[in-house]
Amino acid sequence: MAAAEAGILTMGDTRRVTPWVNLTRSADGRIVARSPPLVTRASSMPQTTIYVSPRSLGAFDTPPPAVVTAELARLFAGYPALAGVSLRVDRGRAIALLGPNGAGKTTLLRILATAIAPSFGRAEVDGLDIVRHPELVRPRVAYLSHATGLYEDLTGAENLAFAATMLGLASPEAEERRAIVLAEVGLEPVAGQRVRAYSAGMRRRLALGRLILAGPSLILLDEPYASLDTEGMQLVDRLLGAWREVGATVLVASHAVERLLDVVDGTVHLEAGIVARIEGVGVTESQPAAGFGEPVTAGAA
Amino acid sequence: MSTLRTEARVALAIARKDALSELRGRHATVSTLFFAALVLLLFGFALGPDSRRLTEAAPGLLWLAIVFAGLLAVGRLHLVETDDGALEQLALYPIERRAIYAGKALAGSAVMLVLGGVLLPAVAILYGIDLARAVVPLVATLVLGTVGFAAVGTFYAGLTVRMRAREVMLPLLMLPVVAPLLLAAVQATAAALAGDPFGELAGWLQLLVVFDVVMIVAGAATYRFLLEE
Question: Do B13 and A151 touch (CB under 8 A)?
């Protein structure tokens, strides 16, 4: 039980436990993160086999790192967008991915989000292999890409309700939470309007709302400040702080370097698909082949 | 049981979302209907004014119009997912792929049933056919035919949605697969309209049932591979 409360998958554990980032607004209008109560979601995934870092077996007080990659590479049409990235990101840290266009920031985020598979190398999220068990990784990861992933003919509220259903959040409390999220991202007055009528910034805010709703343990943000006004940028900053406060890990790729440096623990500079430089705390270069778990069948003796 | 309930809830939410998008983007549905009606009208011109000939050809022409309009409809249901990265987002939700397939196929069946429901009376008016004496078998044929078409169409629309030449590839890949369905649906419609003089209607309907079951099972089992990139 202690392991489940810590958000770690254990042998024989058939539940999926994800920290719920619980945000409320304080009297002075600031977003405040409360200590994360944990919710067990109804899962439609068969969970017969899980991959757990050896470190989490019998050593529940030392959970696996949030992210470990080893020689991670991805080719597009034969050209490497990512050419061997080995990183280890500690839990509860906010890490900025920096670098020029084509450095591999988006590709790295998309691989970790399980949107695309790596061509070579390995990656784990919370000790779970992203290629072997994407279905176990997905409930733990929320990804904000360049595109917002919204439906133009649905209203803002309907888009959020649809996302809630997909995330397995269909209870009356979840409905109340959707209203809170809409207020948090400043879209309450236009929640009944179709997204087709939203500006780019409003769409971005709604996509951020979907991330808050998901309550993941790993948040991947690709250019989160894009299209946002000053207030929207401050919203991103507040969310980054709130996520860190509740122990969620954030990887954020952006060209807004000055702004990011104030809100992250560490930075990874990518150039031409490889790690050029690592600064700050919470992220280190991983040793290839180290820190990866062996396959374990749930319930096995 | 709870897994099935969760999957059913996801599938219904996807179908509802697609239906809402279709209803609100009425121009697409209306233009598809006009396209199908135009196909029927042009076939009528091509066959000439001989009413007996038109009556004989009506079942085939009806199903050709449904197939052409259905190609546009099932393609569009996936195309809406390509707007602003919605397909990628849908694939990243922690849901079973077969629930996505079921939701899409359900929405496709609903749209095609509406199309068929409009085209059937249109055929009756254009080609002078009396539908009243065969309503039940015609509705059964329509339901089985459109469900089977949507089951195949959802799979191939998912397969081609990321292709550049998807408008060409969808019919090219799909039409050979739906040929048995087209044959059975046309024969069942013809038998129903003729009053089933040779008792062959049940056989064609059974063939449609088998086709639907096989395609739904195959589509649900393989759809997940289409979402991987």
Answer: no
Q: B25 and A153: CB-CB below 8 Å?
A: yes
Residue B10's nearest CA partner among A293, A43, A38 is: A43
Summarize pLDDT for A101-151 with one digit per residue, the tens: 999 999 999 999 999 999 999 999 999 999 999 999 999 999 999 999 999
All residues of chain A having their beta carbon less than 8 Å from the beta carbon of residue B95 are: 44, 166
Question: H or E segment at A268?
Answer: strand A266-271
Report whether B129 contacts B193 (CB < 8 A): yes
Distance CA(B53)–CA(B127), nearest Å, equals: 9
CA dist list (Å): B160 to B88, B107, B110, B172, B202: 15, 18, 21, 10, 35
Chain A residues touching residue B13 (CB < 8 angstroms): 162, 165-166
For residue A120, list its beta bridge partners: A73
Is B6 in CB contact (< 8 Å) with chain A?
Answer: yes
The residue among B186, B188, B189 whose CA lies nearest residue B178 is B186
Q: How far apart are CA B63 and CA B85, in angstroms?
A: 34
CA torsion angle for A238, A242, A243, A246 (degrees, to 10)? 170
* Chain B partners within 8 Å of A113 (Cβ): 92
Residues of B with Cβ-Cβ distance to A194 under 8 angstroms: 24
Three-state secondary structure call for residue A54 = helix
Taking residues A211-221, what's their average pLDDT? 91
Q: What is the residue whose two structure tokens read 């989000």?
A: A113
Lowest mean pLDDT among A125-139, A143-157, A211-225, A281-295: A281-295
Are B96 and A45 inside 8 Å of each other by CB? Answer: yes
> Residue A247 is encoded by which pair of tokens?
């122990």
Nearest-angstrom CA–CA distance, A159 and A44: 21
Cα A183 from Cα A29, distance rounded (Å): 12
| Cβ neighbourhood burial of B125 (10 Å; 0-12, 13-18, 19+) | exposed
Q: How many angstroms separate the CA atoms of A181 and A242, rounded?
A: 14
Chain B, window 81-120: residues with a beta carbon less than 8 angstroms from a chain A beta carbon: 83-86, 88-96, 99
How many CA atoms lie less than 13 Å away from A122 in the CB half-sphere?
16
How far is A28 from chain B, CA to nearest CA, in Å?
35
What does the block give as tokens for A103? 């450095």
